[in-house]
Design goal:
Elements lengths: L2 E5 L5 H9 L10 H10 L2 E7 L2 E10 L7 H9 L4 E8 L8 H13 L5 E7 L5 H10 L3 E7 L6 E8 L2 H9 L27
Parallel strand pairs: 4-5
Antiparallel strand pairs: 1-2, 2-3, 3-4, 5-7, 6-7
Length: 200
C-alpha cells in the first residue's frame, strides 16, 4: 500500500478536476480551462497514487512565474525568491493516511535545490483551520501575514518555510545542478527551460 508521487498525465485532468471540486470549502474551485492552464504552465504538477488509484495532487510554481493569483502576488511583493504551493488536494477517503506528508516531502525535495523558501496559504474563514495550520506548522511553516483575497473576500494566513539546504546547494553547485534522475525538474519535457533564480 505504498504511495507513489509522479507527474500528472494529460488523461488524468478530468479526475484531478473532480478531486479539486469535491474537496470542500478549504480549496477554491477550478474549471477545466484553469486546470488546463496549470497543466501547460505549472512548474510542478504531480499526483499521488495509492493502491493504483488517484489519491490527490499538488500544483506549485516558482516566484518567476506569471501566475495571476492574488495570494501569489502578495508573496512576490514581499519576497524575491520562493516556491509557491498553489493547492494541494487529497481525496477524502485518503486523508490521514500520509498522502499529504508524501506530497510535502516530495515538493520540499524539489524546492530546496532551487529556492530558499516555500510559500503557501491557509484559508481562515472555513471553520477547519486548526488541523490544517497544525499540519503546516509540523512541517516548519510559519505565518508571515494575512491577506484578504479580492476575488473571493476570503482571508488567508500566509505561510512560509525556510529551506535550510538551499544555501549549501547554491554554494556547492551554483545554478547548474547535477543531471541525476531524482534531480531533473518535474514535467521538464512539457515546459520550456527557465533561468534558475538566485538567492538574494
Amino acid at each position: 500500500m505504498s504511495i507513489v508521487v509522479r507527474d500528472v498525465r494529460e488523461h488524468e485532468l478530468d479526475s484531478v478536476l473532480a478531486l479539486n471540486n469535491a474537496a470542500g470549502p478549504a480549496i477554491l474551485p477550478l474549471d477545466a480551462a484553469r486546470l488546463r492552464h496549470f497543466f501547460e504552465r505549472a512548474e510542478y504538477f504531480r499526483v499521488a497514487e495509492r493502491d493504483g488509484t488517484l489519491a490527490g495532487f499538488l500544483i506549485g510554481m516558482g516566484s518567476h512565474s506569471d501566475h495571476d493569483s492574488s495570494n501569489f502576488r502578495w508573496f512576490r511583493e514581499r519576497h524575491p525568491d520562493f516556491f509557491y504551493i498553489d493547492r494541494i488536494v487529497v481525496a477524502s477517503r485518503r486523508r490521514g493516511g500520509g498522502v499529504g506528508r508524501a506530497f510535502y516531502a516530495d515538493a520540499q525535495s524539489y524546492s530546496e535545490l532551487r529556492y530558499p523558501q516555500m510559500a503557501c496559504e491557509v484559508l481562515l474563514d472555513e471553520g477547519i483551520i486548526d488541523p490544517v495550520l497544525l499540519f503546516h506548522g509540523s512541517f516548519g511553516f510559519r505565518e508571515v501575514g494575512q491577506h484578504v483575497m479580492p476575488e473571493t473576500g476570503l482571508r488567508a494566513a500566509m505561510l512560509m518555510k525556510e529551506l535550510c539546504s538551499f544555501d549549501w546547494v547554491r554554494q556547492t553547485y551554483g545554478p547548474q545542478l547535477p543531471r541525476e534522475a531524482w534531480i531533473v525538474e518535474p514535467r521538464s519535457a512539457l515546459l520550456a527551460p527557465r533561468q534558475t533564480g538566485t538567492c538574494q
